[in-house]
Design a protein that fits this description.
302 residues, alpha+beta, S16 Ribosomal Protein, Chain: A, five-stranded mixed β-sheet, 11% strand
Length: 302
């Protein structure tokens, strides 16, 4: 089989890089090769091609068959066109000078196209970048406007809340002042009423004291009578106990004699108790009189 002009793959996954080599047609793609004549990097736009044109043209003239990709690379670099011109020189259709002039004109035209394509790609990249930046700025401006509106709305809401609170506070203060005025008037009215009552009491004091002394004495007597009547109930209970004991008089004769003085002592003690309460009633009366005098003095001072 004839030799081939082919590519050998190198590079990482997703980032290929190729060597342009001359190899035997029976050799595997990444196997042994005869000679390396250039490299090809398809990732950038336009693709990067480094090729030894003289060696590529020499191998074409020797009969090496390029693969489809290598043929496109050779056409892109003008090597196939130069080989075509050299065939015409051999046939006598062209001279070497004419062939070289045509080749140079083609190269200049091709370089111009490549430069124009690169510039157009650069401009396109710039415009794309500018559009992206403009879109981003618009989005930022829109977000800033939304944030400003939200902040303004929050501030307005806070101002409204403060105004509402201030209005409520003013209402409460006014109500409190009105209540204080009313309470002061009521207190003044009460003070006047109490002063009048105090004056009326002062005028009636001597009469009230006499009546109090006369009324309180029978109350003490009632207490005495009530407390004197208590021994009667005890006497009934003692009588029942004596009846029960009389039944057993045959065995215990001395017990009722001992109980009689005890009952008499109880009756005497209970009869004496109400007599001791007279000074207590008098002390209470004196305390009440002293309290009334103090209250009258306070009212007079007011």
């Amino acid at each position: 089989m004839p030799t081939k002009m082919r590519l050998q793959r190198f590079g990482k996954k997703g980032k290929p890089f190729y060597h342009i080599v001359i190899a035997d047609g029976r050799a595997p793609r990444d196997g042994k090769f005869i000679e390396k004549i250039g490299t090809y990097n398809p990732i950038p736009n336009p693709a990067e091609i480094n090729l030894n044109a003289e060696k590529a043209l020499d191998w074409l003239q020797k009969g090496a068959q390029p693969t489809d990709t290598v043929r496109a690379i050779l056409s892109y670099r003008g090597i196939l066109y130069k080989n075509h011109l050299l065939k015409g020189v051999k046939k006598g259709a062209l001279t070497d000078a004419q062939a070289e002039a045509k080749y140079q004109a083609w190269l200049n035209d091709k370089e111009g196209k490549i430069d124009a394509e690169r510039s157009s790609l650069d401009e396109k990249a710039r415009t794309d970048r500018k559009q992206r930046l403009d879109a981003e700025t618009k989005v930022k401006d829109a977000r800033a406007e939304e944030l400003a509106k939200q902040r303004k709305a929050e501030e307005d809401a806070k101002v409204k809340e403060v105004q509402e609170v201030a209005a409520v506070v003013e209402e409460v203060v006014v109500e409190a002042v009105e209540e204080e005025m009313l309470t002061k008037e009521a207190v003044a009215d009460k003070v006047e009423v109490k002063a009048e009552e105090a004056k009326a009491k002062k005028a009636e004091e001597p009469k009230e004291e006499k009546t109090e002394t006369k009324v309180e004495e029978p109350e003490a007597e009632v207490v005495k009578e009530e407390k004197v009547e208590e021994p009667k109930a005890e006497a009934k209970t003692e009588a029942k106990a004596e009846e029960a004991k009389e039944e057993k008089a045959e065995e215990k004769v001395e017990e009722p004699k001992a109980e009689e003085p005890v009952a008499e002592a109880k009756e005497e003690a209970k009869a004496e108790k109400p007599k001791a309460k007279k000074p207590k009633a008098e002390a209470k009366e004196k305390k009440e009189e002293a309290k009334e005098k103090k209250e009258e003095k306070k009212e007079d001072k007011k």
